[in-house]
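re: the backbone from monday

yeah here it is again, tokenized this time
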């Protein structure tokens, strides 16, 4: 058993979902079964699709606390070739403020409450208890890694873990604002078909959208997969007659963004769902 796999099993036993990284601190690439969006996910190794692939091929979404998965034959080549171990902060219930240089560290010391700190190659990881949407370059030298993101495991660090402060959440406020604006100006056609309308009253469609929003809102894991499948269900039921408007889609996008999805992730999931249904 490799040292990286031993580390991963220790993390999993403590409730921290690990995954193997190859050289360059990158996740292992998608397997042939998941290549070219075949599973409904994005082909950039960052977002999972609705598949049950046993291999660690979907970036942060490959992270797991299941020892039988980490020890499975399908994962053995990845652990043999792993250059490091990463983990999914959101899955562990934490947020990592990645400070990449001395200026960023100085800003954090002056602006953020003290918390658990892990030294990195070039800076520090400040780890807070609680999750939020991940966001890169929220200010010079500062990234936020939590939901739908991975961070390299660099050791236990020092200090008590503080609750996620509003000052960190505020760093990513700009993305939901721009994402909501973008969702109002979707370029995907919503009236490409004119099949038989099953919406006897507007309430029928409204109930369907409300149920879809609720499904996304209540998801606790596999967020992108849930979003994709929900979009697929909405389009299958409501997308063929022309009654689905941009306002309806905006409600779905807003719910997904509240769970950490970016507008690009939403648009990709929507496009993939339309493609799968031949729309």
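seq for it, each position gets an aa:
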């Amino acid at each position: 058993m490799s040292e990286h796999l031993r580390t991963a099993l220790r993390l999993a036993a403590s409730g921290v979902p690990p995954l193997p990284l190859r050289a360059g601190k990158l996740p292992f690439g998608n397997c042939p079964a998941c290549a070219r969006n075949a599973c409904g996910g994005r082909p950039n190794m960052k977002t999972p699709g609705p598949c049950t692939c046993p291999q660690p091929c979907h970036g942060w979404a490959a992270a797991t606390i299941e020892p039988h998965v980490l020890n499975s034959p399908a994962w053995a080549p990845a652990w043999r070739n792993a250059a490091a171990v990463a983990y999914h902060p959101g899955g562990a219930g934490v947020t990592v403020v990645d400070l990449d240089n001395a200026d960023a560290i100085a800003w954090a010391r002056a602006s953020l409450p003290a918390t658990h700190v892990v030294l990195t190659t070039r800076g520090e990881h400040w780890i807070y208890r609680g999750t939020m949407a991940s966001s890169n370059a929220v200010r010079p030298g500062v990234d936020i890694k939590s939901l739908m993101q991975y961070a390299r495991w660099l050791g236990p660090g020092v200090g008590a873990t503080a609750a996620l402060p509003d000052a960190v959440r505020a760093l990513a406020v700009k993305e939901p604002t721009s994402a909501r604006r973008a969702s109002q100006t979707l370029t995907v056609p919503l009236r490409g078909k004119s099949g038989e309308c099953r919406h006897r009253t507007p309430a029928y469609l409204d109930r369907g959208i409300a149920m879809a929003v609720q499904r996304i809102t209540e998801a606790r894991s596999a967020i992108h997969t849930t979003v994709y499948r929900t979009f697929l269900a909405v389009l299958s039921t409501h997308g063929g007659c022309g009654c689905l408007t941009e306002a309806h889609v905006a409600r779905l996008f807003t719910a997904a963004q509240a769970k950490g999805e970016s507008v690009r992730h939403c648009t990709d999931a929507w496009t993939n769902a339309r493609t799968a249904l031949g729309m």
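The mean pLDDT is 82. The beta strands are 18-22, 26-27, 84-87, 94-99, 116-119, 124-129, 135-139, 142-145, 151-152, 162-163.
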